[in-house]
């Protein structure tokens, strides 16, 4: 769908420069998705993978964030091999609803209730990032926590449109459950892509 060089704005790796590759196509359909234009892969022209790799390698930060849409829909082996051959660190952001292909240095699993992650992906997650759009999502987050490895980073991120309402709930929850941390969409505060 698009590629751009920016600062990672959310999750554990917030603040790091990276080349973002947003892959079009998603059938998870979160009502609060802030990139709904990514859902329909057909409206985005196909891109040459070797050209994508070359563009990613041309930037000073040797890090790529693969996001979507839902990147898990696609075979990513060739892209990952090409990026790895350029010594680029590969960060994946996924709902986990699909079996993954490719090799990643970091997997941020952001589970969605209506399309839950495949069981085997919980053991591969380096970070569990749960979006909180209503109070009941906190209980669901604790259920998801039980499915990941003990060393997995646990992040709660308020859904942007209700962040003012959700933030006090998240803060209170984390004070009682300090194994969790807050993830903010800091790129929105900074007004960068």
Structure description:
By secondary structure, the protein is an alpha/beta fold. It has one domain (2-190): TIM Barrel (Alpha-Beta Barrel), CATH 3.20.20. The chain is built from six helices and eight strands; from the N terminus they run E-E-H-E-H-E-E-H-E-H-E-H-E-H. The protein is globular.
Q: How helix-rich are the residues, as a percent range?
A: 25-40%
Strand composition percent: 15-25%
**Rg estimate, integer Å:** 16 Å
How many strand segments?
8
Per the CATH scheme, the topology name is TIM Barrel
SS element count, helices: 6
User: What order do the helices and strands follow?
Assistant: EEHEHEEHEHEHEH
CATH architecture: Alpha-Beta Barrel
CATH class: Alpha Beta
Low-confidence stretches: none
The largest sheet has its strands arranged as 1-2-3-4-5-6-7-8
Assigned CATH superfamily: Aldolase class I
List keywords for this structure.
globular, alpha/beta
Briefly, what is this?
The chain has 193 residues and is α/β, with parallel strands linked by helices. The chain is 26% helix and 23% strand. Strands 1-2-3-4-5-6-7-8 form an eight-stranded mixed beta sheet.
Strand-helix topology:
Elements: E1 2-7, E2 17-23, H1 49-57, E3 63-68, H2 77-85, E4 89-94, E5 106-109, H3 119-122, E6 127-132, H4 136-145, E7 153-158, H5 163-176, E8 180-182, H6 186-190
Parallel strand pairs: 2-3, 3-4, 4-5, 5-6, 6-7, 7-8
Antiparallel strand pairs: 1-2
